[in-house]
Write a structure and sequence with these properties.
about 240 residues; alpha/beta; six-stranded mixed sheet; 6 helices; binds glutamine
Length: about 240
């Protein structure tokens, strides 16, 4: 039998990839290889042809200007992304792309950057940036640890649930102690760091959903996550 293979698509690496967000792709690739799968990495930038066959979609954060640059292209592929999400394709979008997977981001200077509305969320830019280490708690993934830096404050509508509850830091906004969003197998989060090296439970969720969708079942070999565990211990002791 030929080796089973998973294709990861990174959205907009030229404009949306800050604070090490590309590390999320590397973690998925390496863990998939450890589990015995071949991995194909694809990138998608404005003007590219959207690939017909993808198993996991990942996107990072960016400056307001980068979000402005990708807006038109993102709106053009929004229908395809929503269809894939409704078909159970796992996705992880961080900060700037998380915001644009929502309805809109109104920047602090008043510019409205339209999003694709995959998440029932809206984001309003404020003069104060929310910056620092952050820890949240999730029933699905346990403690989620990372770093946030955003001016946008995100508010969840009725058709979306948060990824985690804030223990340290700000999260979606300064008011309701929520962080991130969940819809089907799509995860949105403000956490850079990158997120996945310190939160392998989320990496394995994305992998499990992708592999089960494509091949019917998935069994994890044991991966020794001692370095991730150590990194988590150190990161939780860091001040805000
Ligand atoms: N430009 C957006 C904001 O400031 C997103 C920032 C980011 O991706 N880190 O809210």
């Amino acid at each position: 039998m030929s080796q089973q293979s998973i294709t990861i698509l990174q959205l907009y690496p030229k404009d949306m990839n800050i604070y090490g967000d590309f590390g999320n792709v590397l973690v998925l690739k390496r863990r998939l290889q450890w589990y015995g799968y071949d991995v194909t990495l694809l990138t998608y930038n404005p003007g590219d042809t959207f690939p017909s066959d993808v198993d996991i979609i990942v996107g990072g954060g960016g400056q307001d200007s980068g979000q402005g640059k990708i807006q038109t292209d993102l709106l053009a592929i929004g229908g395809q992304l929503k269809k894939l999400a409704d078909n159970g394709v796992p996705m992880l979008v961080i900060c700037g792309l998380y915001q644009l997977f929502g309805k809109f981001f109104k920047t602090a200077s008043g510019e409205v950057i339209a999003g694709i509305g995959l998440f029932d969320i809206e984001t309003h830019g404020k003069s104060e940036r929310l910056i620092g280490n952050i820890i949240t708690a999730s029933d699905e993934f346990g403690e989620i640890i990372g770093y946030e830096n955003h001016s946008g404050q995100t508010f969840l509508g009725k058709r979306v649930r948060p990824l985690g509850r804030v223990r340290l830091g700000a999260g979606n906004n300064m008011g309701d102690a929520t962080e991130g969003a969940r819809y089907r197998n799509v995860i949105g989060s403000y956490l850079h760091g990158s997120l996945l090296p310190k939160n392998p439970a989320i990496a394995d969720f994305l992998i499990e959903k992708a592999v089960t969708r494509k091949y019917g079942d998935f069994s994890t070999d044991i991966i020794d996550d001692k370095f991730a565990t150590l990194a988590r211990q150190v990161a939780t002791k860091r001040p805000r």
